[in-house]
Amino acid sequence: MKDFRKKIIKKTRRIVIKVGSAVLASEEGVFARLSDGVREIRRSGREAAIVSSGAIALGMKRLGLKDKPSTIPERQAVAAVGQGSLMAMYDSAFSQAGEKVAQVLLTHDDLASRSRFLNARNTLLTLLRLGITPIINENDTVAVEEIKFGDNDTLSALATNLIEADLLIILSDMDGLYDTDPKKNPSARKLPLIEDVDSLPAELLTDSTNRFGTGGIRSKCLAARKAAHFGISTIIANGSMPGVLSMILNGDDVGTLFLPKEDRLTSWKHWIAFSTRPTGRIFVDDGAKAALLRGGKSLLPSGVRDVDGSFDAGEIVHCVDLKGMEFARGVANYGTGEIQKIKGLKSSEIEKVLGYKVCDELIHRDNLVLV
User: Fold this and answer.
1) Confidence at residue 13, expressed as pLDDT on a 0 to 100 scale
2) Which of 17, 81, 179, 222 is deepest in the core (most CB within 10 A)?
3) Which domains does the chain have, with CATH numbers?
């Protein structure tokens, strides 16, 4: 196992490190250990970006709150109080280690928009090139339900594509993934290796959380799944363990290692699959579904039975079967009104009906991802 991990680490040049609220709230020394770990990563010739929770947790501490606020405005206010303290602690710890940090706050809209996604990528890659560690967090002070990632586990997985990372490390208050809930079963066994994250049984994905965090082991496994489809490995480990980053860099058997998928998605298709929020649905017949799933074909108007939602050409849409179950998503070449007019027709009839033809396909296979 150790030799196997060493091979993965040897190939790694850029790392995303996600740090959970429970880890940051456990003790002040965790910031110093993080800075030491990142310094070691940089000295090894690698780069690292941190996706950090903790703004709400620190805000709660500063305001003397025992329970997390239940409404979004209250959470936004508490996050505003805590975000400054969070960055101050990072800046202090990293400065003492001779390192520099930069704050990067994102909402889901920043990644769902392709132009803003690329702008964020350029900024982050420039920071890394300058030897500065980005501290990425969701912009909790402005995020509402429509633009929230849901949790920073999800954000960390999307960040692997954003900075084109080779490894995702999720530092949690958990030692990894277990065969049963270790909080309920003292004899629970840690699973050191997950070869196929898509095949994990549902009973392993419990939703236990702490009073500071938003995601349990389920959200971490889903993050590992998103990273796996981008072709990179994920390690979930206990962030309170002294020297945990050094141990991971050394290839030691800590936490749970999730292997990547062999048929990895390109950065473009990973963005379509995971970073976007589709704005409509295209209902396709069984023949078109089979052609997309097994034939690697594009979606043609002849296979479309209906369309739902309001979207323009160039927007991301769900491809669903006649029962409404999504099986793919992609970039539509025509808008809702256009598809209503040409659904069920042959591609050769598009120009006759619309008076023009952009292309033969409603969604080209290069812009379509099976989900």
Assistant:
1) 96
2) 17
3) 2-269 (3.40.1160.10), 278-370 (2.30.130.10)
